[in-house]
Write a structure and sequence with these properties.
heterodimer; A: mainly alpha; MetI-like fold; 14 helices; about 0% strand; B: alpha+beta; Rossmann fold; OB fold (Dihydrolipoamide Acetyltransferase, E2P); 2 domains; five-stranded antiparallel beta sheet; 9 helices; 19 strands; about 30% strand; globular; ATP-binding (chain B); ABC_transporter-like_ATP-bd (chain B); ATP binding (chain B); ABC_transpr_MalK-like (chain B)
Amino acid sequence: MAIVAQHTKFSKIAWPVLAWVVALIFFFPIFYMVLTSFKTDADAVKPEFLFSFTPTLENYANMTENYDYWRFARNSVITAVSATIFTLVVAVPCAYAMAFNPTRATKDILMWMLSTKMLPAAAVLYPMIFMTKAAGLYDTHFLIIMVLSLINLPIVIWMLFTYFKDIPKDIIEAGKMDGLNTWGEVREILIPLAWGGIASTALLCFIFCWNEAYWTVRLTTTDAATLSKLIEGNRAPEGLFFGRLSAVSTAAVGPIVVLGWFCQKQLVQGLTFGAVK
Amino acid sequence: MGRIVLKDVKKSFGETNVIPPLNLEIDDGEFVVFVGPSGCGKSTLLRMIAGLEDLTAGDVEIDGNVVTEVPPSKRGLAMVFQSYALYPHMTVRKNIAFPMRMAGIDEETQKAKIEAAATSLNLTDYLDRKPGQLSGGQRQRVAIGRAIVREPAAFLFDEPLSNLDAALRVGMRLEIMELHEKLKTTMIYVTHDQVEAMTMADKIVVLQAGVIEQVGSPLDLYHAPRNKFVAGFIGSPKMNLFEGEEATKRNAHTIGIRPEHMTVSKTEGLWEGTVGVAEHLGSDTFLHIHETGLMDMMTVRVNGDFAARHGDKIFLTPDENQIHRFDAEGMRIE
């Protein structure tokens, strides 16, 4: 008894402590970045000024006035929102078809879609740049929206497929008996029943689009450049402008962190769906 | 009206032939039960009538019109599923209204029909609840309500009581039979439970491996099973079927005798055996008899209570008029 009680007492203290330590380790870089964004570039590189410094908004003012933050932010919103919508418009019917009218090839198609994620992006970088330039699509919203959509489609279809699989086929068939056509089934039954799943998938897709850097940095110059490009552009090799870089980074990740914070519950549900049932 | 005719309907999944060409006529207003062991194709057949399953060949006719290519909702049929298949995101009211809304029926008529259906199915107090807040029996009643308001040419029931507990099942069975009496609409009912089939049907269709073994009234099937399969499937406890000298004596390959068609005695009788398990139900006693030399275990039903214990010697005498004879192919000999 004593051992059990001791053990329980130990886990009651040890686990929370461990959890806090891990959380702080993960949180520290972000905290450090936010802190640095309020320092001058000179203060930013001095370790002794970690906590004791005079906060300044200079970096943020500089960012909005001289580096056109709002244009990059607007591009990020336009491309991420459009790509998320486009991805869902393609993925919902696709996942619906595979979940409710599977054929012998369905499993293979799903695996094939996933396998496209295994292609190293760098392998097709130069073909992509040359082709898009030749087609006149380089540095356009259209190109970025398409690229973001296509890289996220497999995972989005997989997630939606998992959600849809959980809707009993009988309900769809009852709908058929009651007079629904295919579009009606999607609108009246599928979307209302899978709403939570669709929402968390959309959210995740949006986050992936927003955070994407490999292609957005390499396929844009100015017109379609997103916040990733802004960060990239402020990365001076000399490493002297930490304050400025931190401000840009904070402003780039800020919206997504806030969004993620509010949608935590849906996100966790979405990611563990099917795993714990 | 709801006369349904199946003409040479056939269903294959790839190479597997689930239903070989099959013909069946269902008259308007009939209560037809498809019964058979699981995997016999009874649900597939029902789904083919509903239009949820494509036909590989043949035609389905409803009231003289070929509907083989007509989508499910345009066939004028309503289906009640085993899983109820209610729309979980809609209230009971909206569930029942759904087929009417799809058909573009005006709201006044919808309201009146919902009220009427809810009253007859005891659902009035639950109209604003969601299916998740209802018991199994109530859910099944909502599913029936959703079917009724469509005023279909025929109701299709796919094992509707299988998910309910035993007591509720008996109650719902009576409700469905009452409903049939009231509406006089054709009903096709799929079940693997031969008791449901016997008690509910005007006409039973016994299926095995997609083949119709026999079509007839419950008592036809009970008294004159066309073959050994039907003989063994219909009736509870099962008919005792055996081969051997006793069968040859009666000019048959196999003979069958139902448990209720034998008299039991502790002193004399035609066949002798040893009592195994005795099940005392009060109203009846089921005795499982071993060492008869006829078959492994023979079942006998005695009216009322019969004092018998494990290991007792016992004598059985069959009612000769109730012995069913079958030939080597398992077909009935008249």
